[in-house]
């Protein structure tokens, strides 16, 4: 009897093999896809709440269990917890009433590519830790550069636009300083400044703080009534920076700012930067996808003047979060952000030798196979297919603006330049009204303070949002305000 007993080592081996069981993965995976397909279909129908609101301090009471020391679920239990507890507690991204933040209703097949990336788990620090992942990423980078109008683009995909902006500004800092700032630090030379629109994303000032410049190194340039950088104000800020003995390491223009979706005058800003030999960085995280559309790409005319561009895939390229591209017009600039030695990774004697080693150009060492989902989406749907999504949500935003202009009880801040619309219900407390709508689960909208007033803000991200949904939004706001 004792001879037939399993040893502790045998038991451990059996348990470990069970954790990696391909058949269990197959069975659970098929059931999971069915569950997620039902979840997707329900959200797209828009018949339920966009969010089942529970105050976070109360919702957390259901998530205070101690760390399990032994298994408490089997795969079937896991699916049931997903079905009845976790998925119902999500913000329904694919719901046509989800009009809040700049987060895509991701393409379902792109989400499947994330599953592939998760299981393959390519580290991508150097080419040998992710060969096909590296080549996919380089292909996507070339495609995005081609859309900008660049011939010899270089760049990298990062985990979000904040990291992409930091990467671009690190390259600008190294390029613009007249000393080796990477080795000697920021205190070894004159103070550095970044000129950016007053509506620039907060990640720009955050990057300045991370780089040791201090957030005050970002000089805010006034915007006009349409939310676009004022070129005269840019010129004045540049003159003052020179008079103060500082170095302007970069001018940051925005293509689709977060508050209003406005696009800075890229041609004018680009021409000025070229005239004065200033690094131009375009934060196109939100709006760069307009380049796909023959209808809307003209609004981004001048983006080709940029030295660096950031472009988010998880916004208007309809990718699951997070994937962002930081792109450089000149390949050599891509190597200036992180010029350091790491002999256990980098064995090359020049930048060219490290072309295929992704972490040579990014903050991340280990990073996932981000390029797969972008490559798949462009391959499955083409530029024209993704452009249809962009054109649909831009058109829906314009339709909402028209309805607001025609309604006497609403006020629209400005005509939308992308897919963001800011407006007010006259006589109402906008913040309270927003809270009431969200807590009812009727719509998801955000708010922004501009011109010393609070405005409701909608970001039309879902191409399935219809005119009927817009009418329901306005009627819901009216009803909740009374």
In percent, how much strand structure appears in the residues?
5-15%
The outline comes out as: globular
Number of helices: 14
Gyration radius, to the nearest Å? 25 Å
Q: What is the helix/strand order? A: HHHHHHEHHEHEHEHEEEHEEHEEH
Instruction: Characterize the biggest β-sheet.
Output: 7 strands, mixed
Structural class: alpha/beta
Poorly predicted regions are 340-347
Q: In percent, how helical is the residue content?
A: 40-55%
Notes on the protein architecture:
The chain is an alpha/beta fold and 482 residues long. Helix content is 41%, strand content 12%. The chain is built from 14 helices and 11 strands. The protein has helices spanning 8-19, 22-45, 56-59, 75-86, 108-120, 131-148, 161-176, 181-184, 202-210, 231-243, 266-275, 371-406, 430-439, 467-481, and strands at 154-158, 192-197, 218-221, 247-254, 280-283, 308-312, 324-328, 410-412, 420-425, 446-450, 453-459. The strands form 2 sheets. The protein has a 7-stranded mixed sheet, with helices on both faces. It has a 4-stranded antiparallel sheet with strand order 8-9-11-10. Strand 10 and strand 11 form a beta hairpin. Helix 5 (108-120) packs antiparallel against helix 12 and helix 6 packs parallel to helix 12 (371-406). It is globular and about 85 Å long.
């Amino acid at each position: 009897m004792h001879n037939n007993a399993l040893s502790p080592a045998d038991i451990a081996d059996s348990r470990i093999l069970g954790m990696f069981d391909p058949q269990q993965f197959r069975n659970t995976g098929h059931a999971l896809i069915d569950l997620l397909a039902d979840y997707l279909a329900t959200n797209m129908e828009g018949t339920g709440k966009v969010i089942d609101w529970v105050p976070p301090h109360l919702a957390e009471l259901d998530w205070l269990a101690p760390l399990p020391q032994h298994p408490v679920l089997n795969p079937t239990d896991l699916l049931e917890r997903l079905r009845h507890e976790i998925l119902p507690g999500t913000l329904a991204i694919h719901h046509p009433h989800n009009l809040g933040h700049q987060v895509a209703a991701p393409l379902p097949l792109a989400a499947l590519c994330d599953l592939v990336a998760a299981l393959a788990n390519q580290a991508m620090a150097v080419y040998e830790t992710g060969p096909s992942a590296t080549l996919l990423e380089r292909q996507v980078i070339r495609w995005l550069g081609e859309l900008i109008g660049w011939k010899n683009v270089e760049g990298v995909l990062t985990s979000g636009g904040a990291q992409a902006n930091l990467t671009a500004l690190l390259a600008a800092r190294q390029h613009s300083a007249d000393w080796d700032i990477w080795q000697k630090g920021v205190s070894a030379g004159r103070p550095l400044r970044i000129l950016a629109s007053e509506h620039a994303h907060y990640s720009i000032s955050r990057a300045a703080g991370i780089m040791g410049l201090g957030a005050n190194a970002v000089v805010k340039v006034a915007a006009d009534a349409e939310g676009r950088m004022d070129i005269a104000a840019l010129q004045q800020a540049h003159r003052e920076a020179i008079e103060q003995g500082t170095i302007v390491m970069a001018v940051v223009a925005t293509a689709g700012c977060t508050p209003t979706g406005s696009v800075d005058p890229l041609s004018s800003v680009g021409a000025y930067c070229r005239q004065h030999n200033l690094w131009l960085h375009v934060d196109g995280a939100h709006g760069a996808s307009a380049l796909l559309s023959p209808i809307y790409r003209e609004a981004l005319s001048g983006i080709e003047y940029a030295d660096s561009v950031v472009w988010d895939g998880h916004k208007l390229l309809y990718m699951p979060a997070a994937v962002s591209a930081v792109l450089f017009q000149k390949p050599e600039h891509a190597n200036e952000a992180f010029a350091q030695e790491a002999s256990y990774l980098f064995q090359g004697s020049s930048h060219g030798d490290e072309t295929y080693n992704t972490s040579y150009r990014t903050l991340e060492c280990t990073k996932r196979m981000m390029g797969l989902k972008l490559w798949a989406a462009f391959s499955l749907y083409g530029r024209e297919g993704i452009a249809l999504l962009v054109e649909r949500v831009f058109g829906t935003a314009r339709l909402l603006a028209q309805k607001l202009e025609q309604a006497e009880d609403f006020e629209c801040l400005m005509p939308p330049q992308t897919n963001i619309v800011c407006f007010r219900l006259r006589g109402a407390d906008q913040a309270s009204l927003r809270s009431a709508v969200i807590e009812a689960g009727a719509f998801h909208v955000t708010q922004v303070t501009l011109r010393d007033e609070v405005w409701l803000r909608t970001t039309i991200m879902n191409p399935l949002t219809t005119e009927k949904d817009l009418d329901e939004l306005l009627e819901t706001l009216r009803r909740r305000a009374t």
